[in-house]
Amino acid sequence: MNYRNFILFVFLIGFASPLFAQKVNMKIHINGVYESKITVLSLAGPGIKTLKEYPAIKNGNTAVLEFEEDLLPGAFVLRFDYKETEKSNPYPSEKRIFIGSQALELWVNPLHTNNPDSTYFQKGEMENALFVEFSQENNKKRENLGGLQNFLATYDQPNSMMYTNGLEEYENRRKEYNQWLATEANKHKDKFVSHFFVLQYITYVDWKAKEEERVKSVIDNYFEGMDFKDPLLIKTSELNEWVNNYVNLYGTLATTIELRDSLFTLAGQRAIEQAKKGDPLLYGWMVDYFYNGYESFNIQSGFKMLQPYLDDPRCLTKRRQAIETRLEGMQSIVIGSIAPDFDIDYITGRTVQFHHYEGKAPYKLVLFWSAECGHCIELVDKLYPWYRVNKEKIDVFALSLDQTESEIPAWEKARANLLDWTHKLTDGGVNSPEANAYYILSTPVMILVDAQTNEIVAFPENIDHLNDAINIKNE
Fold first, then answer.
1. Which pLDDT belongs to residue 20?
2. Which of 92, 145, 317, 452 is the most exposed place for a label (fewest CB within 10 A)?
């Protein structure tokens, strides 16, 4: 971020939420168990992040948690790892909370964290009380609308008077509901939780159209009730869920991997263009959201779509460097290019370069993975049985990006069951020379290489793609 962007960022942060720009303390009274450890998790952004951990608090004692200005306002999860008795094993329970500018006091029985008779805030607490009140009323109103939606979606005579009356009733209630949301948001605009009431907005649906056209009508109207000028939206997980729903609509239209990639790229472009009209923080958040999605699915057309937004000083993305690295890698690591070389160290002390590995198989597969990555484990569980059947066709080089004290033992245990693969624990994980050479930013990633020429043949996303790449090459 250059100096000009930094000044803009500081200005916007200070201007966006002055009502919440202060430190807040929270007292937590533990009762009903022998003791409980407390962990604070943040819900802002695409994933849950651990912020703080507090040692075990004994029954009847109080913990004081401090939330700094940069975390507020915010949505959090309090995790309680409690022991019912001194000799019990710890057991987890969780409670979601919202914090604005008000100091909080919470009485908690970790056995019943979501029972208002056992776990409750002080009298006069505002943010969480408003959320409960809104949720209860909102659920009632949406339940009524849900019944009409089911009728309109399943009734087999759309040209009947009954259907026409039902459609008219639904539209009236939909508009009334959306107006209620706007009224409630304005009424409680000084409370943090009111800022994401807008995400409950119900868009127009062309109910008389066929299923695919209905989906397209929702897509076309998805942003009609949205306020992209409100930067507080990025402070909670609701925004992430709202955009997930938008992207999933495009997913229902995809019939092939190629069409999926094209549709997800289009979804990103449309969403970012809408966010671009609003607050720079939300604009940058939207770019980051789609970068993370494109990284998960390796959608190269999506990365290219993001490139112009990097040149916009209003786009306060946190993933600028990662996107630039990915784009650079797409130009360097391509089918037909020579795969970057790296050293292979054997237990015997012998070191061989990847390019000079003398195997009998016509292909080499470079696999970047991590033993504690869920997607990696899922891939390896399918890849290894496939390899055992096809080992004459391919040699596997599994490069681990594991680094932490928990990851490395998990890797050592996992590799012991992956016989005949060549394993390497990279030095530096995602920042290792090997990961940098291949422009690896996430795992798992597979690169299929011709054993004779060391040219990259394919970037298979799964076993089917790997098998297709090998069969096509053999023809």
1. 52
2. 452
